Each structure stands twice: as structure tokens, then as C-alpha cells.
Amino acid sequence: MGFIRLITRSFTTKSTLLRTPNLSPLPSPQNPIWAPKNHLHRPPFQPKHHSTLIHTKSVGTQFENPTNVSDSVSDDSEKICKILSNSSGFVGIDQFVDGSGVELSSELVEQVLKKLSNVGALALSFFRWAEKRPEFKPTTECYNALIDGVGKIKQFKLIWELVGDMRSKGLVNRDTFGLIIRRYARAKNINEAVEAFESMERFGLKPELQDFNRLIDALSKSKQVKKANQVFDEMKKKRFVPDLKSYTILLEGWGQEQNIVMVKEIYREMRDEGFEPDVVTYGIMINAFCKSKKFDEAIALFHEVEATKCKPTPHIYCTLINGLGSENRLSEALEFFERSKSSGLVPEVPTYNAVVGSYCWAKRFEDAYRVVDKMKKTGFGPNSRTFDIILHHLIRARRTKEVYSIFQKMRSEFKCEPTISTYTIMVNMFCNEEQVDMALKMWEEMKASGILPIMHMFSSLINGLCSENRLDDACVYFQEMLTLGIRPPASLYSNLKQALIDAGKKDVALSLGLELDKARKTPLAV
Fold first, then answer.
1. How many CB atoms lie within 10 A of CB 334?
2. CA separation for the pair 301, 285 (Å, rounded)
3. Is residue 477 within 8 Å of 465, Cβ to Cβ?
4. pTM (2 decimals)?
5. Which spans of this chain does UniProt mark as PPR repeats (predicted)?
6. In 62-189, which residue ranges form alpha helices assigned H by DSSP?
7. Angle 71-85/106-115 helices, nearest 10 degrees?
């Protein structure tokens, strides 16, 4: 691979002249040529704002091509999202569909709705537009994708109206209720989640064990494992006979809460009921021990797995590599990586990513970069998650000048497209570094690629604009949030309101407050 020099260029955004950081690669035989200059020699120091660190465990993959979706459908759905994100609206979509011969299939509409899942109001508008096209016939999957999107903005009245539409067309299925239950649980509406489960029979669906497992899984994953356990105890044997999956759901929930006492209690109960742990159960238990920093117990359980007929999976190795690496037990993490290879497992992308993360925790970025190079040579990645890990740790180590270089190279040299998670990391960093113009550059690049911003990104950008006293721009983006159906957190409006009042714009603050209040009280209409 030849030596590539970064070329700085200027550009304009919102009438402000911006320049990319002047970065050049490090032409050293000991280090990957794509690694940023001086990445080995800058002394690390602590972040100014610890609260701004991105926890990449929760990153999403909004625009990755799902399995079993044709390339043409994936490409067309991205084009439609780009049209919507660039404000040409539904006239632009009409022109695209009519002028290109694209078939507005149910599969295409479903994929667009999934891509719009973080902007529920826009997803609803697109669905209503599609309904007016004679060639479109809504399916269960289309409705379910829409329900998931509007559920994220807590439009539960609308959800039940959509379910009514589905029932009239015979399209309601168990997945529909699984989504509704999950959205109620995520919104902390626990009683409503249980009531949705109980209402299935009214729609001709008698709850089965798989639905019961979905209910306790939704509660557990919404940090309501205590309630999930209560529901489990009330319903087991009276209405459902739990299976191994029922118990593993609770094991995972208590593990996420780092409650090892309950993990062991559920495990004991599971064994008493005659269930033998499988490799998935062992993986969940090992993860629970790692999350609670009980690594000796995790390793001991790993050896127990080896002694059984269960062969440790790549996921189990990843769990141990990630856990040990995050505690700066790098040598042990690497030992498990070598052990996975000697066991006959071919390293997969998640395994390599765990090794990259382990090196990053130890601030050995040059080794992390070499792993990325190896991933490329072997054909296993890297993917956007790989770079999200590196970007997160560079920011954590206050190596922010290197972040933009790596961001550029992930696309130019590795042909790896940033996801919503990647852009969130970049926008947050530039706002925290008081480089709002660069954040705006990232924002526009993101929207040009068809990715729509999420609530956390709006919050970072608006707060950043306020800190630079660019209140007119802050108001524009606040209004855009409301237009997309994204409900801003109270703290965001409070900060913007105070900044406007301090600047003598109390009338603007009051006007925005009225719009926000109206948006909160006005449900989306079917």
C-alpha cells in the first residue's frame, strides 16, 4: 500500500470558513502507515469533561445492510433516505420513484421505515405517502417497522390505532406485540407492557411461552429485571412452564445489574428444575462475572466449560478478552485470544475488535493499528465498530487531533462507511472541544449520506452552539428536532431558554417553549 498524504482543503458551512486539521501520516516501518503522526509520543492526560465520554457498548448500526435484503432494495432505500434528509421531501421521492423505474415494493418501504426508526414522525409521514401509491401494499413487516419507530417517541395512542388498522387487514402477529411490549418497557411503562401482553388474546393471539419470554426479556433489558423476576414467579407453572431460555433471560438481566447473588440464585433454581446449562448459559454467566469484575470466577467457569462437552464459543472468548482488557489485564486478554486460535476457531471481526479494544485500554494504539491492518489483510474487517472503539479511546486519552485523521482513513483506506454511532462520536467530540464548525461539517456529511440525527446528537450540537453564543442556529436545530418528532430532554430546553434570556431574547425563548409544549401535548395522527 502506497504512502498516502492527507490533503487539507477549505470549505464553507453556514457562511463560516472551515479548514480540516493539518494532519500527515507516520511513514515508519514499525507502525501502520495510516496511523496518525505522533500517536506514540503525546503524553496522555485526563479528559476535561468525563461526562462527555462515549460508551461504545451502546452504539447502533442504523444503516448496515440487513441480511436477506437485495442490493437494489438496500441502495434504493438509502437514496430515499438521502432525499428525505436533504429536505427535498416527498416531491423529491415522487420524482425519484417515477423517474427511475423503482418499484415501491413492500420490502423497500420496510427498509426505509427501519432506517427512519429514530425519527418516528418522518417515518409516519413516509408511510402515509407510500399508502397513496397504488403499487404499494402494506405488510405486517411494514407496520411493525413503523410501530417500532413511533414507539421510540412514545406515541402509544398512535401505536394502538395502527394495530387497529392491522387487525382490519389481518396483519397483526406475535412480533407486533413483542415490539409494543419492548417500547413500553423502554419507556419505563412497566404496567402497560404487561397489559399489552395480556391483551394479545383480544386480537386472536393466545400468549405462548415464546411471548412470555419476550415479556420478561423486554423488562430485563430495560433495567427492570426485578419486575421481570416478579412476573416470572407469578406466571411460572400457573400459566407457563419455563424453559432454559426463560432462565437465561433472567441470568442475563441480573448480570447486567451486577447482582451476582441473584445470578447464582437463578442458576441454582434452574439446575434444581432439571435444566443443564448450555454454552449460551455459560456465556451469560461468564459475562455476568466479568461485568462485576469477578474475573477469577469468570476464568474458573471458563475452565469448567472446557471440561464439559460444551466447547467455548467465539462469544465467550470475546467476553473474556473485552473484560480483561478493560481492566488493563492485557497479557491475560491476549492469552485468551491466542487460546481461541489454538482451539481451532478462526478469529472473527468481534474477536479482533475485542483485541483492538484491549490494546486501546492500555493506550497501546500502535498495536491496535497493527491489528486493524491484519484484519484488512485477512479479510475479516475492520468494520465501523472497530473504528468506533479506536475513536472512543483516542478521545478518552485526549488525543483529539488524531481522531479526525482516523475518521478520514476509515473511509479512504478501509472503505468502511461511518454509522450513526460514528457520527455521534465525532459531533460530540467537536462540540466538547469547542469546534462547533467541525461538528456542523460532520452533521452535513452525515445527512448527505442519508443518515438522520438522533436526540443525543441534537443535544450536543445545540448546547455547543449555545456555548458559542450562536443562538439563532441553536434555535434552528431545536425547531428541526420538533419537526422530526424528536422530543428534546427538559435539560436541553432549559439550557437554550436560559441562553436566550441572557441574550435579551426572552420572547424567542417563550415562543420555543410554546412550540415544545404543543409538540408534547399533540399526538401524531394516523
1. 17
2. 8
3. yes
4. 0.81
5. 173-207, 208-242, 243-277, 278-312, 313-347, 348-382, 419-453, 454-488
6. 71-85, 89-100, 106-115, 120-131, 140-152, 156-168, 174-186
7. 50
Residue 496 in contact with residue 508, Cβ under 8 Å? no
How far is it, in rounded angstroms, from Cα 174 to Cα 161?
17
| Residue 394 DSSP SS3 | helix
Grid coordinates of 427: 459531533
Residue of 76, 157, 87, 82 lying closest to 110 (CA atoms): 76
Secondary structure (H, E, C), 346-370:
CCCHHHHHHHHHHHHHCCCHHHHHH
Which amino acid would we find at residue 448?
Answer: A
Q: Which three cell numbers stand for residue 257?
A: 445489574
Helices (H), 187-329: 190-198, 209-221, 225-235, 244-256, 260-272, 279-291, 295-307, 314-326
The whole-number mean pLDDT for each consecutive block of 10 residues of the chain, a chain of 526 residues, reads 26 31 33 44 31 30 49 86 71 72 88 91 91 92 96 93 96 97 96 96 95 97 96 91 96 97 97 95 97 96 91 95 96 97 93 97 96 93 96 96 94 93 96 95 91 92 96 94 86 95 95 88 65
Q: Is 131 exposed, middle or buried (0-12, 13-18, 19+ CB in 10 A)?
A: middle
Q: Give the contacts of 94 (CB within 8 A, at least 6 positions apart).
A: none
Distances (CA, A) of 287 to 76, 147, 253, 459, 512: 39, 32, 11, 32, 46
* Residue labelled with grid coordinates 410554546: 514
DSSP state, 17? E
Domains of the chain: 453-526 (1.25.40)
